[in-house]
Design goal:
Number of domains of chain B: 2
Radius of gyration of chain B: 24 Å
Largest sheet of chain B: 6 strands, mixed
Low-confidence stretches of chain A: none
Oligomer: heterodimer
Structural class of chain B: alpha/beta
Distance between the termini of chain B: 44 Å
Largest interface: A-B, 26 and 29 residues
Shape of chain B: globular
Number of helices of chain A: 11
Radius of gyration of chain A: 19 Å
Strand content of chain A: under 5%
Strand content of chain B: 25-35%
Low-confidence stretches of chain B: none
Helix content of chain B: 25-40%
CATH superfamily of the largest domain in chain B: P-loop containing nucleotide triphosphate hydrolases
Helix content of chain A: over 70%
Distance between the termini of chain A: 27 Å
CATH class of the largest domain in chain B: Alpha Beta
Largest sheet of chain A: none
Number of strands of chain A: 0
Chain lengths: 255, 309
């Protein structure tokens, strides 16, 4: 009940923020504008529309996850509302998990709305309802959850600017992780290789969660890859959340 | 039972990290010790930076003490024990999109309470906020925020209330309302520990006071014991006299048609009054002037500065 109360209040605050509104309007506008962009490009117009729409969804969710987490956590500390909440019989663990659930639910609602909008937009062009967007959205949801967990971890330990930079760093590195072992695995030997493997497991691997290129061309995600992505997304998110809780549990609230 | 020690703070120390990479430490609490008795109002007094808020933050688990301990009913203060404590932070801020009633509901959910609407209605009446209960908190004045803050601290019907500077920044009417509320809470059987630097208020409503100077307890006791009960001076006023009798000691002033005198010694009072009556004066008042908490506080602060300097 306590976790739910924190999650609900976090969700209410997140959806009221200007950031949510601005990012939502921008993403929605960009999707609706994708047909105009497609007309300006030589080539397969349908693919451009899909490409722009899918890229917009991904960037919107990633930015929303990072920025709403960092700003909400900063506001909580800056206005000292956190003192009121944590003075109740609510552990730091419950507080962080409640915050995480509220933020992830916010991202989920935003992603659901955007996917619905995009699917309705694509429907006439595709000649049938594009159901394949939903599995992609589900995997993107976990990308957002991973970024939320990282942003929460950094926000609990550092300043908003540093938290944003660190999480955006994690976001960018998440697209390179997949190539770490395949491209550099053979170069590094011994302890360097162990360090490389540690980095591979520590950083998120978004290539398991992002099937944008596949969808643009084949309009499907293989079931095995979908399940693998879901398994990875759930476990990785939980791992980062547990790490955030461990680091935050004993920390002084210096406000 | 009234008078039993509810909370005991023993030799608390706290260092704050600072500097590059927070490698340096500054000690802000040098050994704070005091106790809070059940059913009493205890004031934690001190100048800005004396360590009042840091002490409260340790009590509420926001900070961890580097030394010393806190006992609640003789046991180390645990998270469970904290559920018997209601807390109002300094300059309280709440989610301002909530209404007053929603804030109390949210607080009740954090305590995992069931069937709390009746309690919420009672609290809204207690803090005289029934009419504003459905307004968003962002429309509340400072005094209203403090009162709804006290109400949220009372949602779980706690034994002990810890209020950090509840009277700070309020206008005279707001201060009076909150002072009366604190006294009402005591009459309801609550124990109140609050901090303030408004010493007149502390003197009026507290049973006990703890004086902190530079992160150290320099005095603790019942208000009447701290004030000593001893009279330092006497103020006497007369009608029908324009000046003090010749040879009268003390400081004298004529205001309107009343002559005021301050006498420093008790033995001077009786002969002076007799002399004034003999000269046709009429005694309007004779008031023993006690030392105030403010004077005691300033003396202790000066002593502390002297001993450190």
């Amino acid at each position: 009940m306590r976790v739910t109360a924190v999650a609900v209040s976090t969700f209410r605050e997140a959806v009221r923020s200007r950031l949510f509104l601005l990012l939502g309007l921008f993403a929605g506008g960009l999707i609706l504008f994708s047909k105009v962009m497609a007309m300006l490009v030589v080539g397969n117009n349908a693919k451009v529309v899909k490409d722009v729409g899918l890229a917009t969804m991904e960037i919107f969710i990633s930015l929303l996850a990072v920025l709403s987490t960092v700003t909400l956590f900063f506001k909580e500390r800056d206005r000292k509302t956190i003192l009121n909440v944590l003075s109740k019989p609510l552990s730091r663990e419950e507080f962080l998990v409640g915050k995480f659930l509220g933020l992830v639910f916010t991202t989920g609602v935003a992603l659901f709305s955007l996917t619905l909008l995009f699917s309705l937009y694509l429907w006439p062009q595709e000649g049938g309802y594009p159901f394949y967007l939903w599995p992609h959205a589900l995997l993107l949801f976990f990308q957002g959850a991973i970024l939320t967990a990282w942003a929460l971890l950094f926000s609990a330990l550092s300043t908003p600017i540093l938290s944003s930079l660190f999480t955006l760093g994690i976001y960018l590195s998440g697209y390179l992780t997949g190539t770490l072992l395949t491209h550099y695995g053979a170069i590094f030997k011994g302890s360097s290789r162990i360090a490389l493997q540690a980095l591979y497991f520590l950083l998120p691997n978004f290539s398991l969660l992002n099937w944008k290129n596949q969808i643009v061309y084949t309009s499907s995600i293989p079931t095995g890859e979908l399940l693998n992505g879901l398994f990875y997304g759930i476990n990785y998110t939980l791992a980062i959340l547990v790490l955030a809780v461990i680091l935050y549990r004993e920390r002084d609230l210096l406000l | 039972m009234t008078g039993d020690v509810l909370l005991s703070v023993e030799d608390l120390t706290k260092d704050y990290p600072w500097g590059l990479l927070w490698l340096k430490h500054k000690r802000v609490l040098h050994g704070v010790s005091f106790s809070v008795s059940q059913g009493e109002i205890t004031a934690l007094l001190g100048h800005n930076g004396a360590g009042k808020s840091t002490t409260f933050k340790i009590l509420m688990g926001f900070l961890r003490a580097d030394g010393g301990r806190v006992l609640y009913r003789g046991e180390p203060l645990s998270r469970k024990a904290r559920s018997y404590i209601g807390f109002l932070p300094e300059n309280p801020a709440f989610y301002d999109y909530l209404t007053g009633r929603e804030l109390l509901r949210f607080t009740a959910e954090l305590f995992s309470l069931k069937r709390f609407e009746g309690r919420i209605d009672h609290l809204l009446r207690l803090v005289k906020m029934e009419e504003a209960a459905n307004l968003p908190l962002k429309k509340y004045s400072k005094g209203m925020v403090q009162r709804i803050g006290v109400a949220q601290a009372l949602v779980s019907n706690p034994e002990l209330l810890i209020l950090d500077e509840p009277l700070d920044g309020l206008d005279p009417e707001g201060r009076q309302i909150l002072r009366n509320l604190i006294v009402d809470l005591k009459e309801e059987g609550k124990t109140v520990l609050y901090s303030t630097h408004i010493l007149q208020d502390a003197e009026r409503i507290s049973d006990r006071a703890v004086i902190l100077v530079k992160g150290k307890t320099v005095k603790e006791g019942r208000i009447e014991d701290l004030l000593g009960g001893e009279t330092s001076e006497y103020e006497v006023s007369f009608k029908g006299l324009r000046e003090a009798p010749p040879g009268a000691k003390g400081r004298w002033q004529l205001r309107g048609d009343t002559l005021y005198g301050i006498l420093e010694k008790e033995e001077e009072v009786q002969p002076l009054v007799q002399e004034c009556l003999r000269r046709g004066g009429q005694v309007l008042s004779l008031v023993p002037l006690r030392r105030t908490l403010e004077e005691i506080f300033m003396e202790l602060k000066d002593e502390s500065n002297g001993s450190r300097g």
